């Protein structure tokens, strides 16, 4: 074992003692970041090349600063995104939401599907959809100027149409044209603040986390936006908390013009996102 791997083992224990959920992963990611190598190449770093700044990054992670804020990057499906203070860090569970949406769009008999991402944050969802559905036309909206500083960096050079605005009245010019509307909106109840992980509570923007007393306030607004934007037969996909399984599909009722509302599990088999189809006239 070289010096770096020995230090990673010690860092792993320190992070575990601090309550970090994935101590080995984070210790290795930090080591790779500081030394400019891939995680699988840590063994190749010479003892004489060990950089003591590694322990500065470990101390920051030990204090529960998000790994992605320290490295300035977040990995999402096939993307590497720039992130930092002011923007919501994309989570692995959202990858399964996007995976379902990509499959749904590919199954549509549409040459150039029109996709709208509401509350885009870092742009992770919009960029993944644009990358993995090559002929799609992707539009995205974000309200926060602080978040948009990062979104603009990430979408630069892509074909994503990025706007600043409120998800509840976005894209009036696209009414009735979208094939799919997707969103990872804020959905944490204000009453749950003290139970939120420090990485999210202390570093993610509140605007991206909390939404009214029951956490469903913005989702109710997005339901109306999705119905306005979608063509008949178009699909909405919306992420929610695992504790909200069963609640969100009830927002997309037949009386409000929806069909086939259903919940779907994430990779841990917990309710993670709801889908519905705009009813035919």
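-> sequence recovered:
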């Amino acid at each position: 074992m070289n010096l770096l791997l020995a230090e990673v083992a010690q860092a792993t224990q320190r992070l575990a003692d601090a309550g970090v959920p994935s101590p080995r992963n984070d210790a290795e990611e930090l080591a790779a970041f500081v030394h400019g190598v891939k995680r699988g190449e840590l063994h190749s770093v010479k003892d004489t090349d060990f950089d003591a700044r590694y322990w500065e990054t470990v101390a920051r992670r030990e204090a529960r600063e998000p790994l992605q804020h320290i490295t300035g990057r977040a990995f999402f499906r096939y993307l590497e995104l720039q992130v930092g203070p002011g923007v919501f860090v994309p989570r692995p569970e959202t990858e399964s939401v996007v995976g379902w949406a990509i499959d749904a769009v590919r199954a549509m008999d549409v040459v150039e599907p029109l996709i709208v991402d509401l509350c885009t944050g870092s742009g992770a969802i919009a960029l993944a959809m644009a990358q993995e559905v090559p002929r799609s036309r992707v539009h995205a909206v974000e309200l926060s100027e602080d978040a948009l500083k990062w979104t603009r960096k990430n979408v630069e050079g892509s074909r994503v149409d990025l706007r600043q605005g409120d998800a509840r009245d976005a894209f009036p010019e696209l009414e009735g044209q979208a094939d799919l509307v997707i969103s990872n909106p804020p959905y944490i109840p204000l009453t749950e603040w003290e139970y939120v992980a420090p990485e999210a509570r202390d570093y993610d923007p509140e605007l991206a986390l909390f939404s009214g007393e029951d956490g469903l306030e913005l989702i109710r607004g997005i339901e109306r936006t999705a119905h306005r934007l979608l063509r008949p037969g178009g699909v909405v996909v919306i992420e929610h908390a695992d504790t909200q399984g069963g609640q969100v599909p009830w927002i997309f009722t037949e009386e409000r013009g929806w069909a086939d509302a259903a919940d779907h599990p994430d990779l841990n088999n917990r309710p993670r996102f709801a889908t519905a189809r705009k009813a035919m006239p």
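The chain has a mean pLDDT of 94.
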